[in-house]
Amino acid sequence: PPKKKDIRDYNDADMARLLEQWEKDDDIEEGDLPEHKRPSAPIDFSKIDPGKPESILKLTKKGKTLMMFVTVSGNPTEKETEEITSLWQGSLFNANYDVQRFIVGSNRAIFMLRDGGYAWEIKDFLISQERCADVTLEGQVYPGKGADGNEKVKNKTKPEKAKKKKDTEKKSNGVKEDNRATNQREEL
């Protein structure tokens, strides 16, 4: 058994332990639990269309928080990105979609959805906007209406990995490259 300590001598760890003991016996309602501790909603497999993998994702993300990245086309300043994405957020709010927006770059924003089941409807709205270059959702990049011609590759997945693989193949065919410092000097 732990030693009895005067309450005035408690540190942060002691207070955290005390809080855990108090909460152990509390009846916490299901809605108050953190999302990772809530039981997931049962999936109705009759609604899944085997031809559309998005239908599976819609059902598995229902009721869970989900984030999507949105890129604004052109070369906007951070203020322009703020204004454009604010208009999009307002339109989504008027359509009864609960969306929070965070600006993460001069042309990039994160849209956070409380219910991921609506993510694909919101994605469809966003890619139809004139200034939307692309939307990244669950690792998939969907080109928007405002994408350049070279960006309009249908539903590309993680293009950075493909580029890295090509670069490593080129290096493996050519000169062997490693992290060691050598005395030899290579001529270019």
TrEMBL record:
Biased composition (Basic and acidic residues): 148-188
Listed InterPro entries: MESD (IPR019330)
Subcellular location: Endoplasmic reticulum
Keywords: Chaperone, Endoplasmic reticulum, Signal, Wnt signaling pathway
UniProt keyword annotation of Endoplasmic reticulum present: yes
Compositional bias (Acidic residues): 23-32
Domain of life: Eukaryota
GO cellular component, one term: endoplasmic reticulum
GO molecular function, one term: low-density lipoprotein particle receptor binding
Entry-linked Pfam families: Mesd (PF10185)
Gene Ontology biological-process annotations: protein folding; Wnt signaling pathway
Family named by the database record: Belongs to the MESD family.
Protein name: LRP chaperone MESD
Organism in which the protein naturally occurs: Prunella himalayana
